[in-house]
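queue> holo job accepted (iron/sulfur cluster)
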Amino acid sequence: MSEKRVLTRGTVVIDVDACKGCDLCIDACPPGVLTMTSHELNARGYAFPILSPGCTGCRICAQICPDFVFQVYKYDEPIELVVNE
Ligand code: SF4
Ligand code: SF4
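queue> job finished
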């Protein structure tokens, strides 16, 4: 396993139980840092997105989500997050 550092400019808070699993946010995220759960479901029985390092804080997920699942926070300064691959 190797370590990679990923520049990360923001983060999102995901209201998991508000998600209806429509997948729109997954393709809309420019750096591709959102993925749907494969084995875990929310209280309504839907898969939901999880965030990997590398968010840019662009807010596109919040704009495209029909159910207002995302709150986006942009950092004042970028940080590096360590990812094991
Ligand atoms: S704010 Fe932008 S980069 Fe971050 S998860 Fe949402 S769409 Fe992706
Ligand atoms: S766009 Fe919103 S409702 Fe659709 S999968 Fe993403 S978080 Fe869930």
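queue> Residues 3-84 form a domain with the Alpha-Beta Plaits fold (CATH 3.30.70.20).
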